[in-house]
Design a protein that fits this description.
The protein is built from three helices and two strands; from the N terminus they run ββααα. The chain is of the alpha+beta class and 75 residues long. It has one domain. The chain has a two-stranded antiparallel ribbon. A hairpin with a 2-residue loop joins strand 1 and strand 2.
Length: 75
């Protein structure tokens, strides 16, 4: 059993996943064969969290950034 991160792609009215050839060979999977897939959404990390860490501001970061933009660039 392998845990993989794959990108979902739209195929017509459906969504499909493409698995890396290396992993397909490793598990000896073939077209038409049944396989068990466990779905779990991958959480994407907020890029602001890396910049500001876990510091808690008294106002939302989004609002602070908008105020900074307004001060620098005007309306």
């Amino acid at each position: 059993m392998q845990e993989l991160e794959v990108v979902l792609k739209k195929w017509g009215n459906s969504i499909g996943a493409v698995f890396p050839k290396k992993e397909v060979k490793k598990e000896k999977l073939k077209a038409g064969q049944k396989a068990m897939v466990i779905l779990r959404k991958v959480k994407t990390e907020n890029p602001l969290k890396k910049t500001f860490g876990i510091y808690k501001f008294s106002r939302p970061t989004e609002k602070i950034l908008k105020e900074i933009d307004k001060e620098m660039w005007g309306d």
